[in-house]
Design a protein that fits this description.
The chain is 12% helix and 32% strand. The chain has 259 residues and is mainly beta. Strands 1, 3, 4, 6, 9, 10, 13, 14 and 15 form a nine-stranded antiparallel sheet that branches. A six-stranded antiparallel sheet has the order 2-5-12-7-8-11. The radius of gyration is 18 Å and the shape is globular.
Length: 259
């Protein structure tokens, strides 16, 4: 599998920018998540996966209507990972496409913390055959959990595991990470809170577990990812983090206000 990392970048000025604002697309400078800060997080990527901003996918064949095209614009984030392509244990690949700049230091909890998260996915029947109906990409926030019960633990990955997509071979509706699927914390933070990969938590339960009376947890990075587990080939679009929707396009990542 060839790696095709990266993204094309384009800056829009003048009349074009005004047209974009009128259409609901907000310049990157007006919202968090400037397009040039999004890309493959290399230190969190293993093997030779694909995370490429692309047009489409359109279809599958015979599918019509809104489910036949990306939910925003005409592009998406295409993801491809293999299950047995490395000499490591486990032998599968991992990819992380995210932003290491604009979310740094933001709170996890509270009114300005993580209160809305989710995305749209293009799931296929083949992906289900590779790893079951919950063989899906995830959303990951690297955080400082700031747990009173684990004061020496300054790092954990906060991961949303989506439930099964309600449709295959077409674009799904919005999958809400605050009401569907489960969340877990990696490492010691998962053990201390009880929200580990082995015993994942619902979103409200996770937030209660993180709010243990100490300093508030803060975010390092935000990303869409997949692996290390089953082969998956599909796409994600319309990543929502609070009031901002990140529209993945072949020309870059555009920000839109959630309505």
């Amino acid at each position: 599998m060839n790696a095709r990392f990266g993204m094309k970048r384009k800056v829009v000025f003048g009349v074009t920018a005004l047209i974009s604002i009128a259409a609901g697309v907000v310049p990157a400078s007006a919202l968090p998540g400037s397009s040039h800060h999004w890309g493959v997080i290399t230190r969190n990527t293993i093997g030779s996966p694909v995370a490429a901003l692309r047009d489409g996918p359109y279809g599958s064949f015979g599918v019509t209507g809104t489910a036949a095209r990306p939910p925003y614009g005409r592009g998406s984030l295409g993801i491809e990972v293999a299950d047995r392509s490395t000499s490591l244990t486990p032998p599968s690949e991992k990819v992380s496409f995210g932003n290491e700049v604009d979310f740094y230091g933001k709170p996890v909890l509270g009114a300005t913390g993580l209160n809305q998260v989710g995305f749209h996915v293009f799931q296929t029947g083949e992906n289900v055959s590779y790893g079951g109906p919950t063989n899906m990409p995830n959303v990951t926030f690297e955080i400082n959990p700031n747990l009173t019960a684990a004061p020496a633990t300054a790092y954990s990955s906060l991961v949303w595991l989506p439930a099964a997509s309600p449709v295959t071979n077409r674009w799904s509706g919005y999958l809400d990470a605050t009401t569907t699927g489960t969340w877990f914390l990696t490492g010691n933070a998962g053990t201390v809170t009880g929200c580990s990969l082995a015993t994942p938590c619902a979103f409200p339960q996770l937030k209660i577990a993180l709010n243990d009376g100490g300093a508030q947890p803060t975010i390092y990075t935000a990303a869409v990812g997949k692996g290390r587990d089953n082969m998956w080939i599909g796409a994600v679009d319309g990543l929502r983090i609070n009031g901002t929707i990140y529209d993945f396009e072949a020309s870059g990542v555009k920000t839109r206000r959630a309505t």
